[in-house]
């Protein structure tokens, strides 16, 4: 192996270790923030602050409710088709076409195993 290749691997491992350490700290900060967020949302909801804006110094906080939908799963598609189409063969044809048309993403990876 070339010296440059080995040096690149060593640098990559060092950076990976730094990312792991920083992510651990970030995870702790996010956990603390989530606890505070739950308390704040509970207070805002119980004090009818939904759709209100609070001005704190140069920061504005707005309390609202948002709705989103998860990704459509293959299981959900099959359930809906089974409720809609009576012929099992038709369902299988549609499911097969969906499976074949799905975009496949490929990525080369490096896996690290720590001692």
Task: Characterise this structure.
This protein is mainly alpha-helical and 115 residues long. It folds into two domains: 3-63, no CATH class; 69-103, no CATH class. 60% of the residues lie in helices and 9% in strands. The protein is built from three helices and two strands; from the N terminus they run αββαα. It has helices spanning 3-46, 74-84, 88-101; strands at residues 52-56, 59-63. A two-stranded antiparallel ribbon has the order 1-2. The longest helix has 44 residues, at 3-46. It is flat, with a radius of gyration of 25 Å. The chain starts with a helix and ends in a 14-residue tail after the last helix. 0% of the residues are buried.
Work out the strand percent: 5-15%
Number of separate structural domains:
2
Task: Count every helix, treating DSSP H or I runs of 4 or more residues as helices.
Answer: 3
> Helix fraction?
55-70%
| Mean pLDDT value | 93
- pLDDT < 50 runs, ≥5 residues: none
Backbone structural class:
mainly alpha
């Amino acid at each position: 192996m070339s010296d440059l290749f080995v040096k690149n691997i060593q640098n990559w491992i060092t950076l990976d270790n730094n990312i792991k350490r920083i992510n651990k700290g970030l995870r702790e900060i996010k956990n603390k923030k989530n606890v505070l967020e739950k308390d704040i949302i509970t207070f805002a909801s119980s004090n009818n602050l939904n759709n209100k804006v609070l001005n704190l110094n140069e920061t504005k906080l707005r309390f609202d409710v948002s709705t989103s939908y998860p990704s459509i799963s293959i299981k959900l598609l099959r359930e809906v088709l089974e409720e809609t189409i009576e012929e099992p063969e038709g369902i299988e044809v549609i499911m097969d076409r969906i499976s074949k048309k799905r975009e496949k993403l490929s990525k080369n990876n490096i896996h690290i195993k720590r001692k």
